Amino acid sequence: MRLFEASGWGLRLERRPRASRIMRIVSSPLAALAMVITGFLVLGALGKDPLTAFKVFFIEPVSSLYGIGELLLKATPLMLCALGIAPGYRANVWNIGAEGQFTAGAITGGGVGLFYGAFLAHWALPAMLIAAVLGGMAWAAIPAFLRTRFRTSEIFVSLMLVYIAQLLLSYLVHGPWRDPAGQNFPQSPPFADNALVPTLFAGARVNLGFVFALLLAGVSWWFGSATAAGYRLRVGGSAPAAAAYAGISERANIWLAMMIGGGAAGLAGICEVAGPIGLLQPVISPGYGYAAIIVAFLGRLHPLGIVLASLLMSALYLGGESAQLELQLPSSVSGLFQGALLFFLLAAELFINFRLRRVRSSRARVPAPTAA
Amino acid sequence: MNIGTWVAIAASAFGAATPLIYAALGELVTERAGVLNLGVEGMMLVGAMSGFAVGVSSGSLLLAFLAAAGAGVLIALLFAVLTLSLQTNQIATGMALTLFGIGLSAFAGRSFVGLPIARVPAVHIPLLTDLPVLGPLLFHYDPLVYLSVALCALIAWLLKRTRAGLRLRAVGEAPAIAHALGEPVTRIRYLAVLFGGAMSGIAGAYLSTALTPMWVEGMSAGRGWIALALVVFGTWKPWRVLGGAYLFGAVTVLQLYAQGLGVHIPSEFLSMLPYAATIVVLVVICRDPRTILLNQPASLGRSFHPG
Amino acid sequence: MVEQLASSGGAVPRLVLQGISKRYGDVIANREVDLRVAAGEIHAVLGENGAGKSTLMKIIYGVTEPDAGSIQWEGAAVTIRSPAQARRLGIGMVFQHFALFETLTVAENISLALDERVAAAQLAARIRSVSERYGLPIDPQRLVHSMSVGERQRVEIVRCLLQSPRLLIMDEPTSVLTPQAVRELFATLRRLAEEGLSILYISHKLDEIRELCDTATVLRNGRVSGTAIPRQESNASLARLMVGTELKECHLEPHEAGAIQLELIALTLATEDPFGTALRNLNLRVRSGEIVGIAGVSGNGQKELQAAISGETLCEERGMVRLCGQQVGRLNPAQRRRLGFGFVPEERLGRGAVPGMDLADNSVLTGAGAGLVRHGLVQRDAARAFARATIAEFSVVCESEQARADSLSGGNLQKFIVGREIRLAPKVLLVAQPTWGVDVGSSLQIRQALIDLRQAGVAVLVISEELDELFAICDRLAVLAAGRLSVGVPSAQLSGEKIGQWMTGGFEAAACADLEHAAV
């Protein structure tokens, strides 16, 4: 590759004969470090004392039990969605619509809670969870079906379905599901106690969803490394010709990947609306489904990495909120850092497969198409 | 419902469609070169903020739009370096660009929230603007609306009839063959991505200086994603994208008037139509490998490794 | 426009290659090759795959440079460093696999490929006049995707002609043409030669070469094995030059073959790939305890045949392929494996093994049915043990069973894949190009492993382009040419000449009935 060579820097990017193991492990922490340093520089340039900023951003939010709870709470939907889409990404199935499957799960699970909550008594919550998972799966079934049957790109279909899901939710809370006692606000009646996801400990909002997320991480690890289905997904993604040779069905892989993603996102959705939010309303997510894509890559598509990456992203969200209160910075500074983090990571990943070399100038040659 | 109301609806549809047109046409050029840039939303916001900021500080709307285009180019450059030179995954990088753009624009624009700005004025063409119905319907928009149509014509012509457009299409279809023929694939893709950034920037600036003259973080409210849908809906052809933008714009506006029009379909379902339609279009063109080839740039989203 | 060039007749030859040598690592592609082409001469370059034709053409067209030797172009010594330079000298090349953009028109495609800028209207006019003049009518405004393969080839030829070449290299031009289109092409080429254009015609189709070409240079194993005037030769004599007469003798102990384990019955398979080959009515039987070989130049249906037998492409009818007596035409690869089928494909990395996975995981790829997967769980310990045993038994050089597949050399990876398939105890083993790109030592081991399998009563089918190898290990040989299969004949009864003739299509295809009467 002639990126730097052309500009006369005398450096060249050259493919390594074998991927660098060190860089594999070190790239994410390196990227995080780079982001933090950049953050300091930026904040410093803006006249904020870096040390205070660091304290406000990273330390304060988690310095109370409630704060730790918030950290875990925000990490939950990120973890669930990212764990859901990661196996698919490894298999070259690009589910971009986790945000929509999240919403679909919230709708189906929430619907069960609203209408059958009383009838089901203490079975309400399990029913809601199952309904949410099924709802997310059903929403993900659409791109799966269109891809396997009609070769339609799951990227665009799942993306469009995000909007449709959000509009559906908006319709429901503005219309048929609106709380009659809610003073005309577009929101559903709040969920009854038996229809709420229980919190984990007093004094914090983090709920059972976090436990589900950790369980899913464990299951995901086991699935990827120990099961034949996980093996088939991995082969399908990295060597399609080998998958055909082995008789691995591409269709089965696509369906499996999408169902996992949809189910996990649906679960995340219900844990959010039947958790901290407590009812259905038009906006139920600050873009968790999209951020999960970043979390998945940050975590290198591996369950352990995703757990850590979710916590980091969650910290960034919290940091942003804290910075908004204490430093008068807009909360969206989180997005700034999250994006920068991913940029650094993607760049750092480069060095897993490539290295910089000094080079003397050499004539560039344009190769012709090779004869058979 | 009298004619006047219909004209008003149509007029706001044109206005609503215009930022979509700029962003979608920019993304169309990018995608025709084979690069999928999901970061349109982020680029639009960066453009909206920069345009607004420069517009308020300098008082010159021309400078505002130039600044917006420039900002779009800069942030697209980031994407281009990562995906084209460093070969990072286009989808992940696009998502990062979205988040980054949203955050950066909010962050950098925080001192401009709530400030007033003079709206881009509508043109007044001597005889035409004063015509009874056609006047307000066709001849009373700000210059950017007309420019967007001209841009569409320009891009359509460039793609179809010029050598530059030919080279771009070749790169998007088969970069390996193009490379073997001696085309600078990476350079062409860079230019396409940067053009997309400039257009998204302008689209954003239109939002903050013409459509709803103000700056608020996240004000594009998902229009970037709609622009992405538009490119697919229009099967990567400029005039279809233009038509689609007017359709999407009309639907957006119509749903506000739906009740008054006696339409009893809930407005949300009306709003769903464009997205559902995009899915249908996708299914239709993807069913047959031939039509995919004829409509979708074959190398879209895949990294190209020269040498 | 092709200029009227004076024919030389004793004057300076157009192209002279002297002592051209080129090696890629251990492999010597060209060994002191001499070549001489006069003006207006149609010169054939013959040889099997791997004989060195492609490399030689790459050198002439400037894609690569020789390690030794000289090139003289119209009397002057030249070094050809790039295709652009070759074109400037006046050398054009029509590739076997066309590099055309499907969604663009003919004129747009040609415009992109030309070195000079020409205005659209002018270009269209030139395309029309050149194409009509040489009997290659094409409409400049047509979109390439709507054109047949023959028409696309015309686009490639016209593109070359527009740059006024003095030497045109054509690489296997008739492999994708109908007989009618071949006639038209020959008329065109003769016309061009009359006007003084020299043509280098690469092919292995002896009939065509004898019909069209003035002279021929035959390559074998990188060397020139002879030159000839095709019209004065017979197919047999040309085949002898191509293939050689000293073929290894088969040293296999005579062995009673047992029950029929693999049967192809009227196997017919269409292909959607314009460059693919349709299989037409193939009939074959492979019994346990014998090795049957299928020879043939690549591109004659080998890939399609492999996919049909392995299950990667399903047949129209179940009965077209039978494994161990069962009709498997509609079963997928995993199902066929369960019935006792093993397969070593010609592509190692990416198909026979997953590059990024270690050897233990790669064992699971086809070993799922052999206890490496149970109750839906990968038995990692069993997989590691399996991989270790395979490595030991087949002397695979690698770090350990946890080494990534892409860290092994070609030969060692091939030994691992062959070993894996053999250790899964198949009843039928299909092997494609078993020793392609493999070092000598590993090749011997692999061949011996196949012979041992035969001893153990497995039915082995080998598809290979290397005749020496086939003669050394096969009981019977058949030839695949243009999607048709010849009768399988004991290798002792075959000569190099006959095989060469068969490989260029001169045989009666095996019909169902023949199998009843086939020897052994």
Q: Would you spell out the secondary-structure blueprint of this structure?
A:
The complex is a heterotrimer of chains A (372), B (307) and C (520).
Chain A: H1 3-6, E1 11-15, H2 21-45, H3 50-59, H4 65-90, H5 98-120, H6 124-150, H7 154-174, H8 208-226, H9 228-238, H10 240-246, H11 250-277, H12 288-298, H13 303-326, H14 333-353, E2 354-358
Antiparallel strand pairs in A: 1-2
Helix pairs in contact in A: 2-3, 2-14, 3-13, 4-8, 4-9, 4-11, 4-12, 4-13, 5-6, 5-7, 5-11, 5-12, 6-7, 6-11, 8-9, 8-13, 9-10, 9-11, 12-13, 12-14, 13-14
Chain B: H1 3-32, H2 40-58, H3 61-85, H4 90-108, H5 134-138, H6 143-161, H7 163-173, H8 175-180, H9 185-211, H10 223-233, H11 238-257, H12 267-286, H13 289-295
Helix pairs in contact in B: 1-6, 1-9, 1-10, 1-11, 2-3, 2-4, 2-9, 2-10, 3-4, 3-9, 6-7, 10-11, 10-12, 11-12
Chain C: E1 15-24, E2 27-37, E3 42-46, H1 53-60, E4 68-73, E5 76-78, H2 83-89, E6 91-94, H3 106-113, H4 120-133, H5 149-161, E7 167-171, H6 179-194, E8 198-203, H7 206-212, E9 215-220, E10 223-228, H8 235-243, E11 260-269, E12 279-287, E13 291-295, H9 302-310, E14 321-323, E15 326-327, H10 333-338, E16 341-344, H11 359-367, E17 373-374, E18 377-378, H12 380-393, H13 410-423, E19 428-432, H14 440-455, E20 459-463, H15 467-473, E21 476-481, E22 484-485, E23 489-490, H16 496-503, H17 512-517
Characterization of the model:
The complex is a heterotrimer of chains A (372), B (307) and C (520). Chain A has 14 helices and two strands. Chain A has 372 residues and is an all-alpha fold. Chain A has a two-stranded antiparallel sheet with strand order 1-2. The longest helix of chain B is centred in the first third of the chain and has 30 residues. By secondary structure, chain C is of the alpha/beta class. Chains in contact: A-B, A-C, B-C. At the B-C interface, helix 7, helix 8 and helix 13 of B face helix 3 of C.
A few lines on this structure:
By secondary structure, chain A is mainly α. Chain A has 14 helices and 2 strands. Chain B is mainly α and 307 residues long.
